[in-house]
């Protein structure tokens, strides 16, 4: 009796068996899904920002997109965005800073006393405020990095300490006004440098340069991922993302160009965003910050000087708090003992809404800034609609809770898939 040979799997045109092709398809689908979920986590804040802007544009009958109102959002929330840039680095490293609002008050108070009361030049007041921020950062960095006290406790003590010092420096009274040169830091505009018929051509040029810079940087990042055989989005989706970002940036530049031109504080913000994005993504210090927040034990064993890095993280936070203090005092044209109340909460909320992880190791400078802008657009839109302050606080709290819940959900799903 003859036995028949076992049936052979029918080959596909590519030469693979059906089983192998099925397995390859399964792996490919898993890669696409992993890429999609990762892009959703990274790009979710940008999608949410566009949705929030569109929603309030509808609810306010386009008033929120008025050129003057767009400019006012930048001016009103600039100091929170500056704080968020420093705060996201603190959070990535696994710490928190509750003192930044009090530091804003103290640095503004030092500048006001020297410039308004003592008659120092306006630029000397700015330098004194920055020096105060450096000293505060060194003080808190020493206790956190070298003594080993948790940052939560150190900065909680700092919140009380620096608030009291601000009240002492001002003698519990407000000081105003600053010289016009000082207030221009937060309220000045660059307009008419390149002319324009009813608009500021210089602002539009800056918008174009920003789009070109973003496109080049994004393309280089994509090519680097391709060289290392890492998954990337499809090319049409890649181009679509650049087009959407370019449209948003140019719309924003167009609005500014038809209002009062390019705010000086926006230039300060742009420099800080670009500079700190390079620091966190392209420098050894930035990689060490992520390593400390991601796995402290592994970072220590890898030779990272954890104490030194933590020290400079808080020095940097002190400097950026001083910059925010200068901007805030310049915008309010004076210094008040109660300045900066709850600023630390706004900065922390901006970071978490922008994608920073509660446990550290995750977050971006751009994400924190977009998170701050999202909160600013929400607050501004609700104010235009006449929503009560109590309801505004409820909405902000819910948004923050949902953002953190989304982060926790992503972590659990990633852990379950391993």
From TrEMBL:
Which Pfam families has this protein been placed in?
BPD_transp_2
Instruction: Indicate whether Membrane appears among the record's keywords.
Output: yes
Q: Which residues cross the membrane?
A: 45-65, 77-93, 98-116, 122-139, 146-166, 198-216, 237-254, 260-279, 311-330, 351-378
Keyword tags = Cell inner membrane, Cell membrane, Membrane, Sugar transport, Transmembrane, Transmembrane helix, Transport
Q: Tell me what topology the record assigns in the membrane.
A: Multi-pass membrane protein
Recorded GO terms, molecular function?
A: transmembrane transporter activity
Q: Which GO terms describe its cellular component?
A: plasma membrane
- Could you tell me which InterPro entries the record lists for this protein? ABC_transp_permease (IPR001851)
Keyword Membrane included in the entry's annotation: yes
Q: What is its main location?
A: membrane
Q: Where in the cell is it found?
A: Cell membrane
Among NCBIfam families, the record links this protein to: GguB
Biological role: Part of the binding-protein-dependent transport system for D-xylose. Probably responsible for the translocation of the substrate across the membrane.
Name this polypeptide is given: Xylose transport system permease protein XylH
Query: Top-down, what is the taxonomic lineage of the species of origin?
Result: Bacteria, Bacillati, Actinomycetota, Actinomycetes, Geodermatophilales
């Amino acid at each position: 009796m003859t036995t028949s040979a076992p049936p052979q799997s029918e080959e596909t045109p590519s030469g693979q068996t059906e089983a192998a092709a099925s397995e390859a398809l399964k792996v490919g689908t898993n890669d696409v899904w992993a890429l999609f979920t990762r892009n959703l986590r990274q790009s979710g804040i940008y999608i949410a920002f566009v949705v929030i802007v569109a929603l309030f544009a509808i609810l306010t009958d386009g008033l929120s997109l008025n050129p003057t109102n767009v400019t006012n959002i930048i001016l009103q929330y600039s100091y929170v965005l500056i704080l968020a840039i420093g705060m996201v680095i603190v959070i990535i490293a696994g710490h928190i800073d509750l003192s930044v609002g009090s530091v804003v008050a103290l640095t503004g108070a030092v500048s006001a006393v020297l410039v308004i009361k003592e008659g120092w030049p306006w630029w000397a007041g700015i330098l004194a405020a920055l020096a105060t921020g450096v000293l505060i950062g060194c003080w808190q960095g020493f206790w956190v990095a070298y003594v080993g006290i948790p940052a939560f406790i150190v900065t909680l003590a700092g919140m009380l300490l620096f608030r009291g010092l601000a009240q002492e420096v001002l003698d519990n009274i407000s000081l105003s006004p600053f010289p016009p040169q000082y207030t221009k830091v937060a309220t000045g505009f660059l307009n008419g440098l390149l002319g324009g018929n009813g608009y500021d051509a210089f602002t539009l040029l800056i918008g174009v340069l920003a789009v070109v810079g973003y496109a080049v940087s994004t393309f280089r990042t994509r090519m680097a991922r391709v060289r290392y055989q890492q998954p990337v989005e499809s090319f049409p989706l890649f181009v679509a993302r650049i087009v959407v970002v370019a449209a948003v940036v140019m719309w924003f530049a167009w609005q500014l160009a038809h209002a009062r031109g390019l705010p000086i504080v926006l230039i300060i913000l742009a420099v800080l965003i670009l500079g700190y994005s390079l620091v966190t993504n392209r420098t050894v210090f930035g990689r060490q910050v992520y390593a400390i927040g991601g796995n402290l034990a592994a970072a220590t064993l890898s030779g990272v000087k954890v104490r030194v890095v933590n020290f400079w993280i808080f020095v940097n936070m002190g400097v950026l708090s001083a910059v925010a203090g200068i901007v805030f005092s310049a915008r309010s044209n004076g210094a008040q003992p109660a300045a900066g109340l709850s600023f630390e909460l706004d900065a922390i909320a901006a970071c978490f809404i922008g994608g920073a992880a509660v446990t550290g190791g995750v977050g971006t400078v751009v994400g924190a800034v977009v998170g701050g802008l999202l909160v600013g657009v929400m607050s501004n839109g609700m104010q235009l609609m006449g929503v009560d302050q109590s309801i505004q606080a409820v909405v902000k709290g819910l948004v923050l809770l949902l953002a953190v819940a989304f982060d926790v959900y992503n972590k659990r799903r990633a852990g379950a898939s391993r």
